[in-house]
Amino acid sequence: MDFTIRNATPEDMGQVLELIRELAAFEKEPNAVEIDEKELVAEGFGEHPLFQCIVAEVKGEIVGTAIFYYRFSTWQGRSIHLEDLIVTSSMRGTGIGSALYTEVMRFADFKGVRRVEWVVLDWNKTAIDFYKKSGAVLLKDWYLAQMDKKGLQAFVSKKFAD
């Protein structure tokens, strides 16, 4: 399988958004994607980009992507969070996901970060096995905590109303 891994451009964000939607469907959240192409371009390619994106391309079509950004750890210093690594379903098992993952790890090493972290759903055995095989440690004693927009609004209105 011949493919190219390269840095994404603003023009790629339409195809990247389609991969994001495919991932949402795979993760059983088909209606969860609220972002649009315009926001991806603005947030990823503006004066202060919030994320970096690499893509895998086969014959001019984007078939995979890795989206990541810097974080700061009070224990480790600069780290990278791998937000999503997506390969379209028809291209899984071809080495594209491994190549994208490797590129993110090389980037992190080159930048001197002390940690790369990401989350994986507990039922995604294929991904879990891949990550374990790569040497990643899956932390089972930590919870992922989130507050969505509705929760934020409820919290802020309650908190400041008291």
Automatic annotation (TrEMBL):
PROSITE patterns: GNAT. CDD domains: NAT_SF. GO terms for molecular function: N-acetyltransferase activity. Keywords: Acyltransferase, Transferase. Pfam families: Acetyltransf_1. The keyword Transferase applies. It comes from the Bacteria. Belongs to the acetyltransferase family. This is Putative N-acetyltransferase YhbS. It comes from Aquimarina intermedia.
